[in-house]
Amino acid sequence: MYVLTMIGALLAYTMGTSFSTGQEFMQFYAVHGYYGAIGMFLQTFIMIAFCIVIFWDCRKYNFKNPKDCLIAYCGKYLGTAVYFYTVIYMYCMLLQLIAGAGSIIMEYFQVPYAVGACLIAALSIGSVLLGMQKIISLISKVAPFKVLLVMIVAIVSLIYAADGIVGGTAIARTADVLRVSDSWFLSFILHNSYAVLFFLPFLVSIAVDKSVSRKELTLIATIGQSVLTIIAIIMILAMVANFSLTGNTQAPNLVMATTYLPFIAGIFTIILFASIFTTISPIAIMVAQAFAKPRTLAYNFAGSASILFALGLSFFASFSQILNIFVSVSGWIGLGVYACIIFTKLFRKPKPIEDTYDSASSL
What we know:
This protein is mostly helical. Helices cover 78% and strands 0% of the residues. The protein contains 17 helices and no strands. Helix 6 runs antiparallel to helix 17.
């Protein structure tokens, strides 16, 4: 049961606003047509390996948080620098999720952007006050509904596609839309490396639970990433096959739901909003933990203040622009982290955490 709960939590954490709306996979994969689906398939094997390496190394070397991992893989100075960038990165993710919530509510309900943005900010502050374990238990229960609805929308959109996969590919490859790279292969590489910074804090939060066996951790990584890949490939192909409809929108999946399944579009919008909550909640907690110890007045204040500041910043750029800027930069930094992990695994052996330095940070 624990394995299923954590797979659900992994799916819920991953399927936030950029995944559930389709905007992330539009910019990385769908803009390259069916070649993007090939890149997504290749990503599966790398991400499964990455998750297993982090899980097993956390156990073997007693890593307690992402800073431990990054210093072990990248060295004291570079690892510390990347750690502080990761804190900034998670904050940018918080900003992007707030912007996504505002965009979704505005696009479907035709209300001011501030309505959705302020509502998700208020829910995020509530998450900081509740704590990580309660949030993981909550978000794992939302995952099945998100998966089911995204799959229904994608499959129906594929069946009744406006352009077809071949026709959509031709449109996508020449369209003037936001894209991370002009190369489908480089987009696939950068999405993998960008995911390093996104997944690392969450993976460590799972691995530190010593009651979970290595076999269970391996199952969580393998099954969770495989399910994500299946969902993503079907979703990417649906966006490609309807590129004339989805290419220049903030929420491609919502556009397909409104076009082909208008009677569930309202429910889909609510599920998308819930998807943002399931991702933004642990991120808000991780950001707060970077500034103070959990369950303290300083922790509550730091978490709440950072969320409110991100809310203010979200009014100055669109969701798609925010996503494009920070994932592009983070992809290149994550690529460096990947190189350090590979070098460490091949040529040197980290010492257990007690033998190197005091582990104080908790992000």
